[in-house]
Amino acid sequence: MKSVRRALVAGLLGGALALTTACSSGGGGGSSDGGKTAESKAAASAAQIAITPKNGATDVKPSDGLKVSVASGKLSKVTVTDKDGKAVDGAISADGASWVPKAGLAVGSQYKVSAQAADDKGVVATAESSFSTLTPENTINFSDNLAKDGTYGVGMIVRLEFKKPVKNKDDVVKNITFEATDGSVVKGHWFGNQRIDFRPEKFWKSGTKVTVHYHLKSVEVAPDVYGARDLDESFTIGRDKESTVDASTHQMTVEKDGQVVQTIPISTGASEPESWRAYNGTMVIEAREGSAIMDSSTVPGLQGAPYKHPVPHSLRLTDSGTYVHGNNWSDSSVFGHENVSHGCVGLRDAPGDAGGDDTPAGKFYADSIIGDVVTVKNSVGNDVSPDNGLSGWNIDWKNW
Prior knowledge:
Number of domains: 3
CATH topology of the largest domain: L,D-transpeptidase catalytic domain-like
Shape: elongated
Helix content: 10-25%
Structural class: mainly beta
Largest sheet: 5 strands, mixed
């Protein structure tokens, strides 16, 4: 009897175990297959995202560009951050096929990219990448003719000079921008491969505030050579003062804000010898030098007896040595009647190296600032070269 009971219990346990095993096997198998199917659907987006530069890339040139693109789908979200976690501004194209940054990348930085795209069924694909840009071994520094928060005349031209030749001129220009409160459009003009001058189409308006942004640190200005730094410079345009020298009448007419305020007797470049003739054209005061040393040896081809002596109230107009300055050695009868200078515009001044403050030269000097316009007409001399000083106003806008 005990044997029958043991057999019965064993049979019942065996059946229960078999039943339990069968239920576990059936339920577990169904759950596992169902999970794999769901995962496959989630990962089966037809959208294929590509990120350039590739993940893990190093020493990337900023000019090589960052681009996110997708095939068989449309981008829905792209996030790019630099090493400081700052977002890189960019935009997805209208067709959703690509994303590019609005500005160039920075040198010596790391970037992280995260992108999402959906195929035509709405199934989302994601991709992530990171890369780093190069740190330049060679750089070119530059300088301009602006003083911090300076005030200049309406003829001011911003002159930017590089210490070494620039090859990628277009890339340089694209990364120099001007903000002017009067809305002026400013363009650059290259003189050679180390100097570029900037100006608006017409003279600045009085009171205009201007900020220049030199974003050149990440610009490849020549093969494997980058700009040395980024720099912002601000300046203000002061009152409008424009002077016109008529070499034939020996007079200089001074206008302020469009009104004639003074006519000053002058003496400008003599007709002979030829090297003494004054330039014609629009020039700009580029420096206030006070009592400057005039040295004939620094002017190639200048004829006549050599000289080297201080000249009072000197306002430089050209790199080659044209000035508006005080003349304290000629008889007062010369001014307004004769042209006797070596190419400069002379105003009557008092004896002594410093001249006199209460003279035509002294008063004109005191009232002049860098950027003031001085135009010479009716001289028998040549036209001033646009790259001689800040004389770029002698190039018409379409050729600037």
